[in-house]
Design brief:
- The protein is an alpha/beta fold and 376 residues long.
- It folds into two domains: 231 residues, Aspartate Aminotransferase, domain 2 (3-Layer(aba) Sandwich); 123 residues, Aspartate Aminotransferase, domain 1.
- Helix content is 40%, strand content 14%.
- It contains eleven helices and twelve strands.
- The strands form three sheets. A seven-stranded mixed β-sheet has the order 1-9-8-5-4-2-3, with helices on both faces.
- Strand 2, helix 4 and strand 3 form a beta-alpha-beta unit.
- The longest helix has 32 residues.
- It binds pyridoxal-5'-phosphate.
- The site of pyridoxal-5'-phosphate has 15 residues, from helix 3 and helix 4.
Length: 376
Amino acid sequence: MREIHMVDLKAQYEKIGSEIDNAIKSVLVSTAFIKGPDIKLFEEELQEYMGVKHVVSCANGTDALHLAMMVLGLKPGDEVITTDFTFISTIEVVALLGLKPVIVDPEPGTFNISIKAVQKAITSKTKAIVPVHLFGQCADMESLLVLAKKHDLFIIEDAAQATGADYLFKNGTTKKAGTIGHIGTTSFFPSKNLGCYGDGGALYTNDETLARKLRSIANHGMKVRYHYDDIGVNSRLDTIQAAVLRVKLKHLSKFNSARKAVADHYDEAFAGCPLISVPERAGYSSHIFHQYTIKVKNGKRDELKKYLESKNIPSMVYYPGPLHMQKAYGYLDYKENDFPVTISLCKEVLSLPMHPDMEKEQLDYITLKVLEFFDK
Ligand SMILES: *Cc1c(COP(=O)(O)O)cnc(C)c1O
């Protein structure tokens, strides 16, 4: 049996390596390292896949969030509501721009932002909501759209973990995660479902004015060469990364289906184990399983992790600590028990190996060892 990894980019490269090599080689030969032709082609291909009017590429997913906050013209002191249970990027950029992060609890089942909690957190200073489509499944966007409309708020979707997930509206139509709010952001960090071979990111919007301004801000606020209309930043996707992404985008649907098959296998294996709670699947979203995250209900999560380690099975705790308890954000003055759902999730969650190249033998071995732990 192959060695088991959380994410196995080596196994993937063994399969698509020759396509990748050719794509990178063609950029090397052209020397068009910045804003080469692959950038525009990749943006167009991703637009098509996402069913969105504009894709603006940038340097990484954190920058994408930063650019989104900049382009909406939010002012210092404006409040931005987001979830306590996510990667740090989301509140980092809010804080950097002098905006006020307002943290709320997630739902214990889906791990995504709680609509009730958002509703309670809205004040006259609230300007935006940032739902994160965590672990590959959409937040409850239809409810958020209603709230945003009622209170005149922007929605910025952090879709870094959900490239390819479909949101299902009550009227039967679907949209891709990241294309539902005013702006969506994503990351092409290597381990993401659509990952490149370094850093990369992008924004989605259907609004042409926003798209034009985003392009400008991501390139020093430059409108015409050496004329600057906005204060901008330098945040561009490298052409080499765009070339890699063009190859990987072609395989994305297949890769996401393979992840789902792994999740189904795990679900089935754990169905009879009352101490494991498998990830809840919301009726309004497909799930592309960026992570497969169980909750261990007997307080022995860390013991299980160690046991698996001893059997050469890696696992990870995403996320070990809530945002509201991080030292850097102490100035927000939250108390530990302000967000009890996150606190309990941080103690129970465990993400198991999940990638498109998992072999049945590996899966059988992992599920056997997990169940063995609970039978001891
Ligand atoms: C990965 C990730 C980001 C940041 O992306 P980078 O490209 O690493 O900057 C932001 N939000 C979420 C939810 C992520 O998972």
